[in-house]
Each structure stands twice: as C-alpha cells, then as structure tokens.
Design goal:
With 149 residues, the protein is an all-alpha fold. It has 6 helices and no strands. α1 crosses α2 and α2 packs antiparallel against α4. The C terminus is likely disordered.
C-alpha cells in the first residue's frame, strides 16, 4: 500500500540467480538503500533512463531511511531527557522534604506554578539559557572580564 504522496507500486514476484541477487544486495548495501529500491534503480538504468530519473527510487529510499533514523534518535533523546528530569525531580523532592518538611508542599506547589508560567511565556527558552549576569548561553570561560563574549 503506497504512502501518502508516494508513487503507486505493485507486488511482483521474480526469480533471480544467486549471483544477481547477491550483486543487487551488495549494491544496495553500498548505497544504503533497500533491495527493492536498488533493483528498480538498476533496472531503470539498464532500460536506458536518464541517471537522475533512474536513481530516484534509491534516493527516496536513502532519504526515508535517514529521516527514520533521525526521528528515532530524537525520540530517544526526548525519552532520556524525561527520565533524567524525573530522577532530578525525585532527588530534589527528597532533599527538600528532608531539609524543610513543614514547607515541602508549599515550596513544591510554588515551583510547579513558576515552571508552568515560565513555559507559557515565549521567552522561556531564553530565560533557561541566560545566565544571571545576562549573557545568553555563555559560560564564564567564554566571557571576558566585563561579562561579554
């Protein structure tokens, strides 16, 4: 079944010699594309299509695979960030409860309200990356004595 915006394709069972199948798979692996895209591209080249048209299936396969890998990487980073945030919140909560048990619930509620309010503002990311001396996203080593980059 074709994806949205994809050229319709059809299933066709073919028989290839072991040598041909191996050569196509080797080419596919070298190009980083699927076997089907490799076979179609090589067939188109063999039929005399212009290379830029004949190699389109291989290019689509390569781009699709790269996008999937990057989406997976991004999802993994989000998951890691969520886990680390949870661990940090639990450690901070345990520490606060130990040090100021009487004020724990009030401080926790105020921190949540402050976080939500900050994230609703468009400048929330800038606030997170700006240091107390006003230099955005710089470490003390990156600034000169006057606090400039």
């Amino acid at each position: 079944m074709p994806r949205a915006g994809q050229v319709p394709t059809g299933r066709k069972q073919i028989w290839l010699t072991d040598e041909t199948r191996g050569a196509v798979q080797e080419w596919a692996d070298a190009q980083g594309v699927s076997f089907s895209a490799a076979l179609e591209s090589l067939a188109r080249l063999g039929l005399g299509q212009q290379p830029e048209l004949a190699l389109a299936p291989a290019l689509v396969s390569l781009v699709r695979r790269e996008l999937q890998q990057q989406a997976h990487r991004l999802a993994s980073l989000y998951a890691s960030t969520a886990i680390e945030a949870g661990v940090t919140a639990r450690l901070a909560g345990a520490t606060l409860r130990t040090l100021r048990e009487a004020d724990y619930e009030q401080i926790k509620r105020a921190a949540r309200i402050d976080a939500v309010t900050a994230l609703r503002r468009r400048s929330a990311l800038l606030e997170l990356t700006t240091t107390t001396d006003g230099a955005a996203g710089t470490s003390p080593e990156q600034r000169d004595g006057d606090g400039h980059r």
